[in-house]
Amino acid sequence: MTTTRKVQSSDLSLDVQPLINAVKEQVALSAAKERAIRTAFERILSAQLLKPAAADRVKRSKSASKEAGEEMVLTTQQAADLVGVSRPYLNARIDAGEIPLYQRVGNQRRVLKSELMAWHRQARRKQWQAIKQLGKMISDEYEAVGL
């Protein structure tokens, strides 16, 4: 009997069972090995997709300020550090219009923390959906070839 546990955060969850099933279709697994692989999948997915966007990851320099009422205004480097991406990637997302630009100071960009976090939640949700779809596609593919 297999139990279905889900890797989850406050608004996202992922069932790793399709991934386990895909592995089991390729190799015979003892119950202990299945548990070990399940744990590894859950650990990897949790580490990669559920990274907490903790405020302590923001480098609190003098340039981080509270403007626009009580809203935190971040430099692109602070924003990139907060969500765990590179500054050039974040700048590309700003240029593409995915993250609203709050202000420009010379050639430097500033973003609102709330807008950044809304984009980050949406991006993580899309990643979860892609992983779910991939797991289902793998499972469907193995079923189609009779493995």
Name the descriptors.
four-stranded antiparallel beta sheet, two-stranded antiparallel sheet, alpha+beta, 6 strands, single chain, 147 residues, elongated, 53% helix
- Say how many strands there are: 6
Poorly predicted runs are 52-63
Per the principal axes of the C-alpha atoms, what is the gross shape?
elongated
* Secondary structure: helix percent: 40-55%
Biggest sheet: strand arrangement: 3-4-6-5
Describe the structure.
The chain has 147 residues and is α+β, with helices and mostly antiparallel strands. The chain is 53% helix and 15% strand. The protein contains 5 helices and 6 strands. The chain has helices at residues 17-26, 31-49, 76-83, 87-95, 113-144, and strands at residues 6-8, 13-15, 65-67, 71-75, 103-105, 108-112. The strands form 2 sheets. It has a 4-stranded antiparallel beta sheet. A hairpin with a 2-residue loop joins strand 5 and strand 6 (108-112). Helix 1 (17-26) crosses helix 2, helix 1 (17-26) packs parallel to helix 5 (113-144) and helix 3 (76-83) packs across helix 4 (87-95). The model is unreliable at 52-63 (pLDDT under 50).
